[in-house]
Amino acid sequence: MGVVIFTLFALCCAAAGAVPAALNNARIIGGTVTTINQYPVMASLLLTRDFVHWRHNCGGSILNQRSILSAAHCLYRRQPNVYRARLGSSFASSGGVIFNFAQFIMHPNYNSRNQDNDVAIMRTSSGISYNNVIQPARIAGANYNLRDNERVWAAGWGVTSVNSNQHSEQLRHVQVYTINQAVCRQRYAARSPITDNMLCSGVLDVGGRDQCQMDSGGPLLHNGIVVGVCSFGHRCAEPRYPGVNARVSRFATWIGNNS
């Protein structure tokens, strides 16, 4: 099954831009409700501890008719049978179509300590049929270079408040900005290394908008193309610390070979 991979050559490097997140793993803060019609590539990943109750835990992006892209930390030390995907629904707990998983493919260089290479592919047990609310994502190619301060969108069912552990039932989205890599690296210097495999986003020195817990694995989109996979941050939506995503362009070949 093919994956739609896009390339974009940036003409220059612009100024800095942007935000905060959480050295926990990630949710949408400061956003608004939206629908699956606007984000038909979205998957809600449901986790169980007893095989009776299933609860939204992470997000993902449909790659093709058998694979979903998510964050490696969502799947770390877990077997495929403890997750299901809900596709084609605006709601985390109802509607859409449920898929079981047959296989998880973790990036071989995933580092659970600093979240480097935080990407994974989830293979479904049965084929995914497309319709108007279930569609494959367009994925940034290896030469897709984002300038600083570009508008990007994050979507997910994560918590909507730093002080809450309850995820949003309805899909939400928020517009943030890409942040200069050197600035992001400096902000996180005392906390966690920011590698070239990471992409920072947010509203720097302002805060209030971010991905956060249970948004992990979900997409960061630039002009409708998946450029990031929600990974981590220091708390959520804090002015000093941007949110951190896996930079999809760095993994384009690996995604294409394993999906």
From TrEMBL:
Any single Pfam family the record assigns to this protein: Trypsin
The subcellular localization recorded is:
Secreted
Q: What are the residue boundaries of the Peptidase S1 domain, all occurrences included?
A: 28-259
An example Gene Ontology molecular-function term: serine-type endopeptidase activity
Output the PROSITE patterns linked to this UniProt entry: TRYPSIN_DOM, TRYPSIN_HIS
List the catalytic activities from the record.
Preferential cleavage: Arg-|-Xaa, Lys-|-Xaa
Q: What is its EC number?
A: 3.4.21.4
Q: Can you quote a single GO CC term?
A: extracellular region
Q: Which InterPro entries match?
A: Peptidase_S1, Peptidase_S1_PA, Peptidase_S1_PA_chymotrypsin, Peptidase_S1A, Trypsin_dom, TRYPSIN_HIS
Asked if the keyword Signal belongs to this entry, the reply reads: yes
Tell me the GO BP annotations in alphabetical order: protein processing
Q: Which CDD domains match?
A: Tryp_SPc
Query: Which keywords does UniProt give here?
Result: Disulfide bond, Hydrolase, Protease, Secreted, Serine protease, Signal
Residues annotated as signal peptide: 1-18
Entry keyword annotation includes Protease: yes
For this protein, the record's PANTHER family field holds: AT26814P-RELATED, POLYSERASE-RELATED
Question: Family assignment?
Answer: Belongs to the peptidase S1 family.
UniProt protein name: trypsin
Taxonomic lineage of the native organism = Eukaryota, Metazoa, Ecdysozoa, Arthropoda, Hexapoda
